[in-house]
Design brief:
The protein has three helices and six strands. A six-stranded mixed beta sheet has the order 1-2-3-4-5-6, with helices on one face. The longest helix has 12 residues. It is globular, with a radius of gyration of 15 Å. The termini are far apart.
């Protein structure tokens, strides 16, 4: 996977194939990047962690740090491949919904080891919907010329 070169001043969003789950890379106009989720429950071999890691590196580079990581909600298919795909890359800010104990132990351990700057806890408004997806983080981007 070799995406086209990014144009300076242009935001590019790449949706990496991860089977059942998400892994989204947002390349910002200022040269930074944001990763939204990184997981899968597809263990059929069609979406291996190694392939996802290679696709990820093709988008942002082999050693590029991550300015922000957003984990939208505590379903494991949104974070269970962080360690294998992101590895030891420095991560600036981690934004997630709900308390860490709502996530699996692997997420909490990875978070303590890799979140360099801060962990932002986002608590959405209460809802009568099921607790995971109704507690998801949403993103809105604005751009000014």
């Amino acid at each position: 996977m070799a995406p086209p070169e990014a144009d300076a001043g242009v935001m590019r969003i790449t949706f990496l194939y991860s089977g059942q789950g998400d892994c989204i890379v947002i390349e910002c106009p200022n040269g930074g990047n944001i990763v939204v989720d990184c997981g899968s429950t597809d263990y059929s071999g069609r979406t291996s962690a190694a392939q996802l890691r290679a696709d990820f590196a093709a988008v942002i580079g082999a050693d590029e740090s991550i300015q922000a990581l957003v984990v939208t909600h505590p379903d494991s298919d949104h974070y269970n491949r962080l360690a294998s795909v992101i590895g030891d890359r420095p991560v600036g800010r981690v934004i997630h919904s709900l308390a860490i104990d709502r996530y699996g132990m692997d997420f909490g351990a990875w978070l303590r080891e890799h979140a360099a700057e801060e962990i932002a806890f986002v608590r959405p408004p209460r809802s009568t919907s099921p607790p995971t997806c109704s507690s998801a983080v949403g993103l809105r981007f604005r751009s000014w010329q």
